[in-house]
Write a structure and sequence with these properties.
mainly beta, four-stranded antiparallel sheet, 1 helix, globular
């Protein structure tokens, strides 16, 4: 082991109710992680090689969503969808660049969707919905404004995917397609539970909460299922891993690997 940190102990945080699920963000020889519920910092930054603490960002309420980067302005921004809002942070200085309150009082899980034109789509389950944001600014002066907000897509666990101006996701367990520009629903069909999805060229791979795998076309007019099989027994909330032609799935009981060329 090269180095390690007990982030919760060092930052005075505690493990969230459903565990610690965000993935570390690795960029420019740095590792960026949320500091936990009630911590002194919102995000902490470590040197990738030495593990030295480089800086910490202002405290925000923790969530189950992972920090990510957006290529806006002259440099990257760190985007973090926390409980109660979404914020952009300067990659060089420990400062907020912008912050947009979000009406959810429940934990946020789905990672925001970064879009061309300095736009950002966020979505929450528990009946909350989605919003499309417009970001404007340069240097350290940034602001976020609301383009639309609606309840046609309420992504609880799963991230969403966009293709040709349409967004696909699980609306509290039911697959939907919405128009990116307006937020209006195109179709809603199929009960998959709180699963996960991956976009692969012109198809969607959906892993269902009950362990099924669905292979469907990407179509804003209507869904078309190409293949379906029972992949796991028991509840499955975990994201899938695809290394073509192999699909790796797991839950709290088992892990499986499928050769997709033999199934499709």
């Amino acid at each position: 082991m090269r180095w390690s940190h007990d982030v919760l102990v060092e930052q005075g945080g505690k493990t969230p109710e459903w565990g610690f699920s965000p993935s570390p963000l690795v960029m420019d020889q740095k590792v960026i992680v949320p500091a936990g519920e009630g911590a002194r910092a919102g995000l902490v930054v470590y040197d990738l090689e030495t593990g030295a603490l480089l800086q910490s960002y202002p405290a925000v309420k923790s969530s189950y969503s992972s920090p990510m980067t957006a290529p806006w302005g002259d440099d990257l921004q760190i985007i973090y969808f926390y409980e109660g809002g979404v914020a952009g942070f300067d990659v060089k200085e420990p400062d907020h660049l912008w912050d947009m309150p979000w009406g959810s009082v429940y934990p946020d899980v789905a990672v925001p969707l970064i879009l061309p034109g300095q736009r950002l789509l966020i979505s929450s389950g528990y009946g909350v919905g989605s919003a499309l944001l417009q970001l404007e600014g340069e240097g350290a002066d940034w602001s976020a404004s609301l383009i639309w907000k609606g309840r046609s897509l309420k992504a609880k666990f799963s991230n969403v995917a966009e293709r040709d101006g349409f967004v696909y996701g699980l609306d509290d367990g039911i697959m939907v397609c919405i128009d990116l520009e307006t937020g209006k629903r195109q179709w809603k069909e199929g009960r998959y539970g709180h699963g996960q999805l991956l976009m692969l060229e012109d198809v969607l791979l959906v892993t269902c909460e009950d362990g099924r795998v669905i292979w469907m076309t990407i179509d804003p007019v209507k869904p078309n299922i190409l293949a379906e099989w029972q992949a796991l027994d028991g509840k499955c909330w975990n994201p899938p891993c695809l290394a073509w032609p192999f699909l790796i799935l797991r839950n709290d009981r088992e892990a499986v690997c499928y050769a997709l060329e033999e199934l499709l």
